[in-house]
Amino acid sequence: xxxxxxxxxxxxxxxxxxxxxxxxxxxxxxxxxxxxxxxxxxxxxxxxxxxxxxxxxxxxxxxxxxxxxxxxxxxxxxxxxxxxxxxxxxxxxxxxxxxxxxxxxxxxxxxxxxxxxxxxxxxxxxxxxxxxxxxxxxxxxxxxxxxxxxxxxxxxxxxxxxxxxxxxxxxxxxxxxxxxxxxxxxxxxxxxxxxxxxxxxxxxxxxxxxxxxxxxxx
Length: 218
Hints:
By secondary structure, the chain is mainly α. 57% of the residues lie in helices and 0% in strands. InterPro entries: Ankyrin_rpt, Ankyrin_rpt-contain_sf.
């Protein structure tokens, strides 16, 4: 055997060995590693391999919560079908359900609501998923949460309802006008004041939100 053939044989052996190592690493990847890599194929293999679907990172976030933050619908679907906990809270009391609602991750939120979301759970401000959804400008999520049965008049630790936040923490534009209509149609009580006794209507008048004032006066 000549030196060239020996070298070629060694190269083939090196490639085969590298492939085996990579394949082993691929198969042993955890669900969290797969979600972080945005790789649903690795995720499916990790789940099939019996890895913990509720594995947490250093911030206490489960793989499902990371998928929600990434708005990774397919990863969330795989994890939910494998039994991931939709109410598992991280170190700051965020859960997959609360984050999906608050940030308007509609496709994921719909799936989460079908997998045992605790509608009474609250974030570190003492608010339901509906309150930040209203404040952050997600009208479809607001309707979805109201239809699911979230308390439209829940008051958070700041003394604010979803309606109050949609007024106080918004620019008063068309999106929040739409949200306020949906909240009112869903049974929001516009007479509930904040901790200082100021109503949503008073705040809207003070901010010059003419359209919102009209909505609240109807």
